[in-house]
Every structure is written in structure tokens, then in C-alpha cells.
Amino acid sequence: xxxxxxxxxxxxxxxxxxxxxxxxxxxxxxxxxxxxxxxxxxxxxxxxxxxxxxxxxxxxxxxxxxxxxxxxxxxxxxxxxxxxxxxxxxxxxxxxxxxxxxxxxxxxxxxxxxxxxxxxxxxxxxxxxxxxxxxxxxxxxxxxxxxxxxxxxxxxxxxxxxxxxxxxxxxxxxxxxxxxxxxxxxxxxxxxxxxxxxxxxxxxxxxxxxxxxxxxxxxxxxxxxxxxxxxxxxxxxxxxxxxxxxxxxxxxxxxxxxxxxxxxxxxxxxxxxxxxxxxxxxxxxxxxxxxxxxxxx
Length: 297
Known about the structure:
Pfam families: HTH_1, LysR_substrate. By secondary structure, the chain is an alpha/beta fold. It contains ten helices and 13 strands. Strands 3, 4, 5, 6, 7, 8, 9, 10, 11, 12 and 13 form an eleven-stranded mixed sheet that branches. The chain has a two-stranded antiparallel sheet with strand order 1-2.
């Protein structure tokens, strides 16, 4: 039977990229780490790592074994959580990734309240605009905005919010002699867009008459960026029109730094919760606490 502690040591070595780093992470000596890896390789009869003077690299067999170890250790942690949750508060690690802007504005306050309810639970929050691999990143939950791509992961809608086309007064004065009062005028605008969006830019829009129409920008984006924070900064500086979540731009609109264009038209957008299959009690309850904290915008 495989030694679970050795699996944990192997995973730590892969993630640290060295025996020394793994030893520091686990609070063990380098000799103990090296011994356990050697014993594991002898048990399996295959080389999992290649060593150099400064770092270790994972072999093809080691990479496959690493991914299986992640799932096995996760399953073991879930079993312990199931038992503990029947008798006490939640414990273990809840690892969650969100986009930086949505995380700071919405998720972090909810997680802070959740952490206060479960002092034995350790929370690891990672801000990233990328669609990180949940298994390789050892994430329990990923919260992303927009439509969920094809995936083997379970998804759950946790919040709906409006998105607004916005621009600065300086941009509107320099590029539009007349106020933008129609979708046709907006189509001709100088657009700032997220780099993950397909071009030509297009969105479904609900008009004041109740018609659901396809809006398509007439020109390619003048500026593209990989984060909502950058799009907001470009819009504030007068670079063009950006379509951004209401929760991100409401303060700028109220302060007069940005103008909401076509406020009688509705551009819709959604956020998703994406837990791994068979998620443990700490994850189910964490999702429920967040869902209750999130309010439509």
C-alpha cells in the first residue's frame, strides 16, 4: 500500500521544483524528502523525477502520477472533512480563484465573513484573469464572469449583474459631436475591449421597446487589455468606450468621471461558480455563504 505522506512529499517537490523548497514547505529536512522520494520510486519501479544540481524536473510518468496524486489527496481530505463536519466546524483548506476586480469588490468580503464563522478553515484566495486549470492549480472553486466554456466541471450561477457601455466626458467631446442616443451611433465608437473577446465585438441588447437585438461594433477594438481594471483605466483616460460591469463603474459614474451611454438599453452578463466534481462540505457551505452575500447589480 502506498504511503500517503510520501504522496504529499512528492506533490510538494513537484510544486516547489526542488527538494529544498519542498522540505521548507513541509517542515522536514532535505534528507527526509530525498529518502521518501527514493522509496516511492523504488515502490513504483519507475523514475518520477530527474535531478540536477539546482532543480528537479518531472518525467512523463511523474506528471501523470502527480495529477493522480492530486485527486487522491483531495479525495482523502474530503473523507476527513465529511467525518469532521458531522461533529465540528469546517476545517482544512478552501482554495479559490477569482478575477482580481470581482474578487476585491464582492468575493473577498464574503470570504472574510465566512472565515469568521469557521476559524479552523484556512482560505487561500488567488487573483487571476486567466482561466487556470483547476486540477493543476489545486483549486476548489473558480469564479469567472461570462459564459462557461465546455468543461467537465460542475457550474452554478451565483450572481447576475448589468454591464454598461461607458466613456469619459473628454472622449465624448473629442470624438462625438452629438450625444450618443442610439445603438447605430454606439456601433461607430472607438472601442476598448478585453483581449479574450472574439471580434467583431457583439452583444445581445434589450431595447426600450422590449426587442432583443444583436449589437455589433462597426470597427475592430482600438485598444485591447487583459483585465477589467485596465479597461477601466483606459476609459477614464478618454481612450474610448468600454463595456464594464455595473459594480465596477458605479462609483465613477456617480462621481462624473464616466458617463453611462444608452442607459435605457440593457446589456446582460453573468457570473459563474465552478467547483470541482464531488466537492467537500467546506466547499458546499462556502458556496452557499457567498451566494447569500451576492446581490444582483
